[in-house]
Structures are given as structure tokens and as C-alpha cells.
Amino acid sequence: MWANGLKWMFLIVGTLIGAGYASGRELWQFFGAESNVAILLFTGLFTVSCFVILNLAYKQKSTQYVPLLTTLVGPKLARFYDWIILSYLFSTTTIMLAGAGATLEVYNIPFWLGMVGTAAFVVLLFLRDTQGMTTINAFLIPILILSLVSILLVFQSSLGFSFSFDVSHQSNWPSAITFTALNILPIVAVVSAIGNQISHRGEIWIATIGSGLLMGSISYLYNESLLQIANEIMFYEIPLFVILKQYPSVMVVAMSVLLWLAIYTTAGAGIFGLISRLRGVLKGETWLVAMLLLAIMAPLTTFGFSSMIAVLYPLYGAVNLYLLVAIILYPFFRHPMSKKTL
């Protein structure tokens, strides 16, 4: 039970900690100053949402997200959100590829080479069908989390650990709702693909509480660190490089590896969700389908990493507000369709 619960926890966290999050760009887009209450609210909303989604996936023994969406919002809106999730998975995986190119450009590696190389490694994940995705997450995500937290703690120690948790003047709390709504999309897509693999309710509690506490605490630590460099963030594509600019080059190398791991796991999760949904439409070996999807995405990476995050992430967060409300209220006010599907 514990092993599987931790595996699902790392799948959830790995789905969210992509290039946008690990680079600091996504957090700065939604949080920043006066966000302590917002991050606390996000932690609560995210934890409850993960529990509802995992519980539904377990009951339905789902292998993809359409039945779960139908239970939450009914058949008509399920078709709408089906297209939204497909669009989200496609566009955010494209953002991951763009992030790979931007990260490796620090070492004068051409943008296109960093992007193509990352896509090739993503394809390798699916040589063993989709089992490789959950296996690699269970191995890489703990390394990713420890590395990110260590770097942020080193930075904070140089400042004398200047943490604060002021609950007054917290005008940014509404951002917690749109940030949670944005991050629920990939959770619905990815978690619903493993519903038939959850064998015990205890796994749900472990994955839910663990992922909620991890995402909340890391978000708070990261946001507090970004506030210390707020005046310089606008000049950098990747805010985290501002934190490391006065540190030895080995730290920059470690950061680049960290960002690449974040890109890799999230791009893999995006392709995983797309393949699970399109399995009946796109025939052939799983790794060939992954290669096809990545080839279609490649030309779109030219729009730029930070530009795509700035435009698409708030848009998806706003569109997904209704689904978030449906998830939070589901235990109390179930959609009529849920009686037919459960």
C-alpha cells in the first residue's frame, strides 16, 4: 500500500513540477507579494481536489478521463472539457519542449537541439508501453524535489532565512483559485489513466496528503525566495537563474539538470495523458504514437517559453474554474450523471 501510494504521489507531483514551476516562472505568474494566504488556500483546495479525483478513478477503475469528467460535469460539459484537456496537454507539453531549449541555451547548445534531444528521451519512456512513465517518476521525482528544496534552502540561508507569514494585507488570495484550477487539468488527465491500478483506498490517502503537503510547502519556500529577487525577474527567461547568478558554476549546472528533469517528467506526463485518451484513435506502438505527437509539437516551440506561460496558463486557469467547483462540491452535491456511472 505504501509503495503504491508513494508512486501515485510522485506521479501527481511530477505532473505539476514542470519547467514552468521549477523555473519559478509559473509561481511568479500567479503568486508573488501578499500571497501567503493564497498558497495556504491552494494547498487545501489542491489536496481536496486530488482526493476526489483519485477516489472517483478508483471507483470507476478508469483508464482515461472521459468517464470521470462525465461523472463530475455531465455528458455535455464533459465533451467541452475533453477538448480543453486535450488542448492543455498538447500545449503544455509544447511549453516543456520550449523550456528544454531555453534551459540548454545557457551552455550555447542550439535551441532546436535541446528540444529534439529532450523529445527523444521522452519517446524512450514509452518503449515499455506506459509502465515506464510511473516507474521513472518514482525514481526521478524524489531527486528533483530534494535538489530544488536544497537549492532554495541554500539561497535562504545566505539571506538569514528571511521567512514571513503575514496574514494581513493578503490581497492576492484569489490567485489560489485560478492556480488550483490550472493544475487540476493535468491531474484529471493523468490520474484517471491509472484508476484501474489503484488497489487500496489507503493509497489514495497517502498520495493525496503527501502531494498536497509537498506542493504547498515547496510553493511557499519558492515564493519567499522569488520575493527576494523581484526587481530582477523581469530580465530573465528563467527566474531561478537569478537566484544562482552569484553562486559557483557547479550550482548553475545542477540547476540546469534540475530544470531538465522537471521538463522531462512533465513532458512525459503530458504525452502519457494524450496517449491514454487517444489510444482508440491513434493505432500503433505506444512509442511511435509518442514520436508522432512530439513531432507535431516541435514547430510550435518557436513561440517562446515565457510567452506561452504568460498567455496560456492564466487562460486555462480561468476556463477550468467550473470544473474545480464541480470537483470540490462533488462529495456534497453530486451531478445526476454520477448515479449512472458509479
TrEMBL record:
Keywords, A to Z, come to: Membrane, Transmembrane, Transmembrane helix
Where does the record locate the signal sequence feature? Answer: none
Q: Does the keyword Repeat apply?
A: no
Membrane-spanning segments: 38-58, 79-103, 109-127, 139-161, 173-192, 204-222, 250-275, 287-309, 315-333
UniProt key word Hydrolase: no
| Protein name from the UniProt record | Membrane protein YkvI
What organism is the protein native to? Alkalicoccobacillus gibsonii
